[in-house]
Amino acid sequence: MAGPSTSRALTQVEQTEFLEEILDDIVSDFSSESDSECDIDYTQLVTPGTHVVSDSDLSDNDETQEETVQVESGSVSSEFVWENIDSFPASRETFCNEYGPQFDTAELDVVGSFEKIFDIAIVQLIVDETNRYAQQEIAKSVRPLTFRSRLWKWEDVTVDEMYVVLALIMLTGIVQKPTLRSYYSKNRLLFTPFFSETLPLERLEAITRFLHFSDNSKQSEYQGPPKLFKIFPVIQHLNDRFQSLYLPAQNIAIDESLTLWKGRLSSKRLTERHFVEKIPATGKKAKPQRRCVVCSRQGKRKDTVYWCSDCEAAMCFDECFKKYHTQLHF
Description:
mainly alpha; 330 residues; single chain; 37% helix; two-stranded antiparallel ribbon
């Protein structure tokens, strides 16, 4: 039976000798490789017509150096001018573009400026798509139309009428009221005669009901962003008009929008982490309830005490919460 193996630590002298042997081997290998590399003829690797710069060319003198290099295919003369980087004359490029409006603005008024952006082409497109969508909805109607139905009274909209609708929509942003019918109210506190004198309420509601910008039957051929299919023709037209009507100057200030927005993004709804919580109590109710957004989409009327505080949407605790945060169309 063999006895236990014993090991002895190296002394300091033995360690020094061992390191010297290793260093000698490394130096000898490196010198042999250097000698073999020196035998290579690098002139064979130079492409004919290429200017070769030697170490002597990189001297620190500031004089202009000219050199003619002889290559196997012939002689090529090249001139190089070496300059100190401190002497580089830096200057700002001169802005020479013609900025501003790219059309005659001498006799242009507010209406003319608006028609430069919303020209006949885009308004005609809106008119065609609105009339097409209205006919599609009338054809899909299963129940017989009543006498007071908007579909029964529908008449194709014209270009002039669409301009009037766009003007009234913009006016609602200046004269702000809670509902569309408020603009046609005869109450002396809310009375705004311009709306009723311009377009009847029923006609305005019918046009805004069928207002459309794209053909739904061509959605399979659409190649743009999926969520912008409904309004993509208008966006594309406005981008083209903005680029052609006005060129910006040299100094441009780009700032973020400060408009308060309380909408919900589907990307945030489907990607970020969400937690179910109880709807916080208010001053009137200790356990307030809200209608479930998922059940409402399915035609059900169901109240719940739970919600997602990030989305500010109420939903049932079990299946609705999962559907709302995992499915694009719930």
